[in-house]
Write a structure and sequence with these properties.
This is Helix-turn-helix transcriptional regulator. Keywords: DNA-binding, Transcription, Transcription regulation. InterPro entries: ArsR-like_HTH, ArsR_HTH, HTH_ArsR_DNA-bd_dom, HTH_MetalResp_TranReg, WH-like_DNA-bd_sf, WH_DNA-bd_sf. It comes from Tessaracoccus rhinocerotis. GO terms for molecular function: DNA binding; DNA-binding transcription factor activity. By secondary structure, the chain is an alpha+beta fold. The chain has one domain: Winged helix-like DNA-binding domain superfamily/Winged helix DNA-binding domain (Arc Repressor Mutant, subunit A, Orthogonal Bundle). Helices cover 49% and strands 13% of the residues. The chain has a three-stranded antiparallel sheet with strand order 1-3-2. A hairpin with a 2-residue loop joins strand 2 and strand 3.
Length: 114
């Protein structure tokens, strides 16, 4: 015979609402984008610039990756909402999206979105 128990019958009660399906799906895309070491390095390079943005032309040398590889990783980061891009003449400049990074930090620290 199978029995089920409510959160108050087994263990400790919930103190906050767990992630909903839509929230979890959105965050899964972000975490998947963060799951590649080269993309983490890209985010680090962008975050390290004093202006908070970097020209795509300045990413190849510190990462020792080809321009096409960098473009691929930046596309994944952009589609996950972690970076934004702005074309200026022939170059594209990238910057972090702090709100998304704050959400990631919040859910990993507390288990819920802020």
């Amino acid at each position: 015979m199978t029995s089920s128990c409510s959160p108050t019958d087994c263990g400790t009660p919930l103190v906050r609402e767990p992630l909903g399906g839509d929230e979890a799906e959105g965050l899964a895309k972000v975490f998947k984008a963060l799951g590649d070491p080269n993309r983490l390095r890209l985010l680090s390079v962008i975050a390290s610039h004093e202006s908070g943005e970097v020209c795509v032309c300045d990413l190849s040398e510190p990462l020792e990756l080809s321009q096409s590889t960098i473009s691929h990783h930046l596309k994944v980061l952009r589609e996950a909402g972690l970076v934004t891009s702005e074309r200026r003449g022939t170059w594209v400049h990238y910057s972090l999206v702090p709100e998304v990074l704050d959400r990631v930090a919040s859910v990993t620290a507390t288990g819920q979105l802020v």
